Amino acid sequence: MKTFNEHIDLIIKYLSGETSADESKKLFDHIDKDKALKNEFEALKKTWNVAASKPDKEVSSINLDDEWNLFSKNIDENSAKIIPLKQNPNKYSISRLIAAVAAVFVLGFAVFYFFNFRTQELIAGNSVIESNLPDGSQISLNAGSELEYAKNFNKNKRLVKLKGEAFFKVKHNPKKPFIVKAGKLNIEVVGTEFNVNAKSKKGNVEVVVSSGKVLVYSKADKSDAKLLQAGDKAKFILKKSKIIKEHNSNPNFLAWKTLKLEFNRATLEDIVKTLNHTYNVHIVIKNPELKNCTLTNTFDKQSLDSILKVLEATLDIHVSKKGTTYEITGKACNK
Fold first, then answer.
1. Model confidence over 294-304: pLDDT tens digits?
2. What is the pLDDT of residues 203-214, one digit of tens each?
3. Residue 6 structural domain
4. Is residue 166 part of a domain?
5. Which of 26, 51, 133, 139 has its CA 20 to 30 A from that of 146?
6. Cα–Cα distance list, 70 to 77, 81, 84, 179, 268 (Å)
7. Which helix (H) or strand (E) holds 258?
8. How many CB atoms lie under 10 A from the CB of residue 148?
9. 126 with 242, same domain?
């Protein structure tokens, strides 16, 4: 966040189309070297584009002063609240809206909302956020993920669209099934707890059920539907348009939310993959012979640096940080 704040003026200038070639190059040199800065820049850029594309008739209804004051008053560090928009036709300015969005980042909030007359979109920046949906369902949204739902959510149906990864604790309501659309896959429930990972660039989706039952399907007639119960996992392979149901054997599927990790003779390759996903970082193993080193240990809400120190001491390896990348070096482990 500190890095983002240091470059906010230049970012706003770039999005306004006012930077010189040298200034643009300077900005993207920083962005290319900093994954966190890149994520936050892309999120702000999307907000900017959405705001800039609003027709005058729609945006004229927003009283930015009232909404920003209400937003500042109600949002806190641990939860995100939806601020309903009021109508006041003479007080809208694109530049002031963008400044307000930028201020959200500067003030350190990890979440913000897009408002229009049809949908609301919740976006996680570079950290996990917790929020409640209008029906009382709870959601944890992983870093870099987005959730969109209609303004009339819970009126006739409960439908949300997910990009990225989220954990849902759905409030029971048999009259209104809760449906998550993740890419080409649909996850339909009445009341349960489950995790959806749709981060794959290939369009694949993974669903793990913690409690209750979940129906997953990709076809409109539900002919390929699979019923999942607690402990089950479904993998949707987009290329084959196929859903594979199996038992979930990964104890760390929710570590990005809980920061609780369990490794039982896990290879360093698998450990690194889990840490990258859990802490939203980039760790690489420089010596391929280290990939099969194994570790048995548990970590409960420990920092990434603390875990890496344990790996160094246990596996006799060395971890160094170059820019935003962690590099693991050392000799092959004794077998």
1. 999 999 999 99
2. 999 999 999 999
3. 1-109
4. yes
5. 26
6. 15, 10, 9, 31, 48
7. helix 255-258
8. 17
9. yes
CA distance 310 to 316: 10
Bridge-based pairing of strands 282-285 and 325-329 is parallel
- Same domain for 1 and 66? yes
Q: Return the pLDDT at 55.
A: 44
The model carries a pTM of 0.66
- Residue 276: give its domain's CATH number: 3.55.50.30
Does residue 125 sit in the same domain as residue 207?
Answer: yes
Please check whether residues 231 and 274 belong to one and the same domain: no
Nearest to 120 by CA among 104, 130, 134, 106: 134
Ranges under pLDDT 70 in the chain: 1-6, 47-118, 334-335
Is the Cβ–Cβ distance between 139 and 146 less than 8 Å? no
What is d(CA 116, CA 50) in angstroms, rounded to the nearest whole number?
10
Same domain, 66 and 24: yes
Burial label for 57, CB within 10 Å (0-12, 13-18, 19+), is exposed
